[in-house]
Design a protein that fits this description.
By secondary structure, this protein is α+β, with helices and mostly antiparallel strands. The protein has a five-stranded mixed barrel. A five-stranded mixed barrel has the order 8-13-14-16-15. It has a three-stranded antiparallel beta sheet with strand order 10-11-12, with no helix packed on it. Strand 11 and strand 12 form a beta hairpin. It binds zinc ion (ZN). The site of zinc ion (ZN) has 8 residues, from loops.
Length: about 325
């Protein structure tokens, strides 16, 4: 959630950086042009402010984020979850500095993440039994780091952990390992072979193609003497599925993505039968500028020497949320 209006953001930049309103508006315009007008004016102003180092939000007032959406490098995050497991408290002595570190695992409806505490006051909450299994905690002012492919929320002496905070309920915690553990990444950081979740705006979309598939498993079938043959199911009932190519842009880079079957339908917002009869220009105009959270795998296409993203799951997201997340990440990269 962006808490400031466009004029308020411009006002803040003006006040802190001494730029004229025209200069600021020019920068916002540049940003909008760069992102092909696909983010809101407020979102662009927000990014400009962050690039200039103008702090718009009170760090303690920032929006809470779901575990799945955590990205390595984020700061001042607020995340809540149910405590699933406590780990041992370790004492360390490193470079003449000694202290304690302790951690526990939390989960929400979207995922699980380890919370690592570097502050004795916070750790004492675990030692005295306030932080225990099945309580809900809200971690404030944490920073996200990647450790061996997993995100961890670190909290130091600037951080805060509330136990059973008011007004927070956590639904059924997502099963561990029920889905591949996708790490959220910026497009510029995506490498071939990465399984990742990326958020971006559709900036280009190509007319879908169609193929015959098996109605049991959805995989492609071959036609032999008019019969549909599935590798797994043998002779099968033939269906039809779409394959969709599009470009996603998150402001740091753009990426060619491919989505098949139900994921293609999810992006298109209609089933394959309807797609076939619909006017593609209309579909395209509806989709350009829409924003999605896409989980999948980046593969190198050797023939074209480019990275392509194979979509395995799609979620539509709130554009303002993206601007907010992007602003957070961009800020720490500057
Ligand atoms: Zn099959």
């Amino acid at each position: 959630m962006l808490q400031l209006s466009y004029d308020e953001i411009v006002g803040k930049i003006k006040e802190e950086k001494g730029l004229s309103e025209d200069q600021i508006k020019e920068k916002v315009k540049e940003k909008l042009t760069k992102l092909s007008d696909l983010i809101s004016k407020e979102g662009a102003a927000h990014i400009v402010a962050n690039e200039l180092g103008v702090k718009l939000l009170d760090p303690l007032n920032k929006r809470e984020i779901k575990i799945e959406r955590l990205v390595s490098g984020m700061r001042s995050v607020i995340v809540a979850g149910k405590v699933l497991k406590l780990y041992r408290v370790f004492e360390f002595n490193k470079n003449g500095r000694s202290g304690k570190v302790a951690s526990f695992l939390i989960g929400d409806e979207t995922g699980r993440v380890r919370v690592v505490m570097w502050d004795t006051n916070l750790i004492s909450k675990m030692e005295n039994g306030d932080i225990k299994e099945d309580v809900v905690v809200r971690v404030k002012n944490g920073y996200v780091k990647n450790n061996n492919g997993f995100n961890e929320v670190n909290v130091g002496n600037q951080g805060e952990i509330e136990v059973n905070p008011e007004g927070i309920t956590i639904g059924t915690v997502k099963e561990a390992g029920s889905a591949p553990n996708f790490e959220r990444k910026l497009l510029k950081d995506l490498n071939s072979g990465d399984a990742a979740g990326v958020i971006g705006t559709i900036t280009q979309i190509f007319e879908p193609r169609f193929y015959d598939n098996c109605t049991q498993c959805g995989k492609k079938v071959t036609l032999e003497n008019g019969k549909a043959i599935c590798k797994q199911h043998g002779e099968t009932e033939k269906g039809e599925a779409a394959v969709l190519n599009f470009f996603l842009d998150d402001g740091t880079a753009n990426l060619r993505c491919v989505a098949f079957r139900d994921q293609a339908e999810k992006i298109l917002g209609m089933n394959t039968g309807v797609v076939k009869t619909a006017n593609f220009e209309t579909i395209k105009n509806d989709l350009l500028g829409k924003q999605f959270l896409i989980f999948g795998r980046a593969n190198k296409n050797e023939m074209f020497n480019r990275i392509e993203f194979m979509t395995s799951r799609v979620e539509e997201v709130d554009p303002k949320q993206i601007a907010d997340e992007l602003a957070k990440v961009i800020k720490i990269d500057v």
